[in-house]
Design goal:
This protein is mainly beta and 68 residues long. The chain has no helices and five strands. It has strands at 3-11, 21-28, 31-37, 51-54, 59-60.
């Protein structure tokens, strides 16, 4: 199964429980498999064949409908 990591973005989870945070969103196939908040420590090691998308300085909105 393919793995894509949206790395280092400003994540807005849409719950309203907190402001955005910097972290990674891991997608396996078409499913969000994990969201990692950098404030919780170092991100895990991702598979060597994962596609890494640099999202530094960009907003990432996992689970939202296309906002555009």
């Amino acid at each position: 199964m393919s793995c894509t990591v949206f790395k280092g973005g400003n994540i807005i989870d849409g719950t309203g429980s907190r402001e955005c945070f910097v972290g990674d969103v891991v997608v396996e196939g078409s499913v969000i498999a994990a969201v990692h908040d950098y404030a919780e420590g170092e991100p895990p090691t991702y598979p060597s064949d994962a596609t890494i998308v640099d999202c530094a300085g960009r907003e990432v909105t996992p689970g939202w409908i296309d906002q555009h």
